[in-house]
Amino acid sequence: MIGVGAAHAQQAIGSATATQNQVTRELAGAEGSLASGDSVYRNEVIRTGADSLAKLVFLDSTNLAVGPTSRVVLDRFVYEADPSAQKVTINLAKGLFRFTTGSLDKKAYTITTPTAAIGVRGTALDIDSHSAETRVTLVEGRAVVCPRQCGSHCKCQVIDTPGQTAQVKRGGGAGLTSTPVNFASLCSGDICADTSYASNNTGGGGGGALCGR
Questions:
Q1: pLDDT by residue (tens digit) across 78-106?
Q2: How far is residue 62's CA from residue 84's CA, in Å, rounded to a whole number?
Q3: Beta carbons within 8 Å of 40's beta carbon, 6+ residues apart
Q4: Which of 30, 31, 105, 147 is the most buried (most CB within 10 A)?
Q5: pTM recorded for the entire structure
């Protein structure tokens, strides 16, 4: 289990607004379960099991819905009065996700996967991340999807029309694909609506909906 000392040694960056079935966390070498209403911390690793879901809402109201058999690393979160110092970096190591930006400047957000680096522009994205391939489908806004490791002739892909899907395979550039990522199917057909951090920071968790309020 994660002890109080391990948690307080880290920076709280948001909370889990909903969890379903097996959702675990790893922080400072300690492991435990993650429940709805729990705070989440910088440098924490969140994992979901089969048939499991989680929704995380960060201090700036960034929303991250996490699908089954997924793993995310909350690498960096700097939320300060100085806009130039604000940064959110999240590593979607494996699985299915819906990411929706919060209130920070668009340049503050960086999403990485094993094969891709994603820059967002006021955006909601469905993301399928695996070791050899990443697919990113635009729900709204605009995003730039680039290979995470490439040479001087790195080929990126802009997606700016809802439904467009960018694909990056290991060792290759980014391009478009006709196979979209559909996170909404994990929400029983409902749209995964934005949730503000303030509205979910009321000291409880309970049975908030995974997708929407």
A1: 766 566 668 888 999 999 999 999 888 88
A2: 18
A3: 12, 13, 14, 15, 16, 25, 34, 46, 56, 58, 74
A4: 147
A5: 0.86
Residue 62, both tokens: 């960034």
The residue written with tokens 């400072």 in the block is 28
Tokens standing for residue 58: 């960060």
Which one-letter DSSP state was computed for residue 4?
H
CA distance 206 to 195: 15
| Cα-to-chain-centroid distance, residue 115 | 15
SS3 57: strand
- The confidence band for 202, taking pLDDT boundaries of 50, 70 and 90, is very low
Dihedral sign, CA of 123, 137, 25, 130? negative
Three-state secondary-structure class, residue 142: coil
Tell me the two tokens of residue 28. 């400072």
Q: Which residue has the tokens 């806004």?
A: 141
> Widest CA span of the chain, in angstroms?
50
